[in-house]
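User: Can you write out an input/output pair for a complex, sequences first and structure second?

Assistant: Here is one pair. Inputs:
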Amino acid sequence: MSFVDLEDIRVSYDGKNNILKNLNLSIEEGQLVSLLGPSGCGKTTTLRVIAGLIEPNDGQFKVEDKDLTKVPVHKRNFGMVFQSYALFPHLTIKDNVGFGLKLRKESKATIHTKVMEMLEVTGLADYADRYPKQLSGGQRQRVALARALVIEPKLLLLDEPLSNLDAKLRINMRLEIKKIQQRLGITSVFVTHDQEECFSISDKVAVMNQGVIEQFDSPEVIYNYPKTEFIARFIGFENFFDLTHIEDRTYVTSDGTQFITGRSWEPTKKVGTIRPEDIELIKDHDYPEDNTITGTVKVRTFLGKSYQYEVDTSLGKILVQDNSGVAYEAGDKVNLYIPEEKLILV
Amino acid sequence: MRKQRGLSMFVFLVFAFLCIPLLIVTVTAFGEQASIQFPIEGFTFQWFAKVFEISSFMESLILSLQISFFATILALAIGIPAAYALARRQTAKTALLKSFFLSPTIVPGVVVGYALFQFIVVQLELPVYQGLLLGHFLISLPYVIRVVGSSLEQLDFSIEEVAWTLGCTKLAAFIRIIIPNITSGIFASFMLAFINSFNNIPVSQFLSGPGVATLPTILMNYIEYNYDPTVSALSVLLMLGTILLMFLIEKTLGLASVT
């Protein structure tokens, strides 16, 4: 039993297609867990099941071992931040933030103190009497966060809260969310389709695909050891090739090149993959025989700190990012060395 | 520049076309002759006085105001929740329902009037007052559903969901969050439905009974037998009433919020 448990959750809108299939997820107290995946993978649905906005067809949702599956949303006491911020346009910032407290019938003085305190924390004290449309995107975001936090919720739910902000603000805000979350020690679920954003603030990440959690691990483990080809593709692995197992840690490709891996992999894994930036480009003839393939540069793209090459090899098209400073031309013959420990099997 | 002058000319003509008949009616209300004439001879307020002396005018005015007001309130009470339900659940079925609700504005007024006559008077045999109320409610409903519906469609429903997460029941969220954010739509639909109901002739004509008729019906009947400037005077008073109403709205809410 963890702090939050989702057990065999199934959601279907039409009775035929399952949006979520037997989904299981456990969240420890005080952690920030992200649900990561492309649109349509079911991450928002999962969040809405937790919030109580969707009732699952099957399964149970528990907090501290108490079954909340049938508890209506307004009795759950979870704070939620929406992608559109969903501020009440007809209320001032102060009243937006104080809305939940007012419903809890707290005294005017208590509400005022708590609201001002929360506005202080989120840096909005000067805007208390303004209306939402008078604020910038980042400020609205903070109001939404303050409004969700001021009710001292058991859980904080964030549905793509940063996707409407510009790149720079997004990075600032995610740091801020992380800081506030840690300071209050509030258990949080964060939905996003942005892997960098998700890795930077999460304690654990659940990568979702077609209504199923494919991997639930720390950001480091997911980044380095994606369990499936889908996850690998989603988090930046570009090159995939079939491998045949010869003996422990030794594989061979269809064209006969031998590959040594840095560790033993389960026998079910038969596809090798590597990130473009982990491949080493070697021009001269002094290269190891294993883990090396030859190819011809097709396209060169300048990325700023590195060049990206599309290289035609016997294993098909391979993408390489090289920051050695040497610029190869289209048509150049190159050798691609795939380091043992960077070669991942999925 | 020349193009602009052409445009102003065109605007002026349209404006004149709209206003001149009203101006002529206004002028004829002050003529001394016993029949409506233009231009007028002499100047008098006697027709205005006569408006208030004809009891059927006063009675039907009060009836018209009552019917329009209560019918519109009824239409709001039914129409707002209906518009909400239609906006909240958008499927192929609701699209069909929506066009069905709007049909009284598309079907010719006479047909609606006749249909309501068949239904309300012949089938239900309702008393005239209740019949008129029901008929006017039915012709007001589409305006409410249409106008309130369009302001609901512009609303981000996640503000409602957020209110639930903060502890609001569904009903409380609807009253405290949804309603305050569609007030301009509600007000606009009230104005539209009220004015439309107040002006309506085809439905009222079919549903009126002995001694109970709305102002437009009485006005039509009156002009059939008496071609005197009382009708002009009454029209001027109605116009003044509308102008006053618009002025009040402009002062309190701003016209932009209604249109």
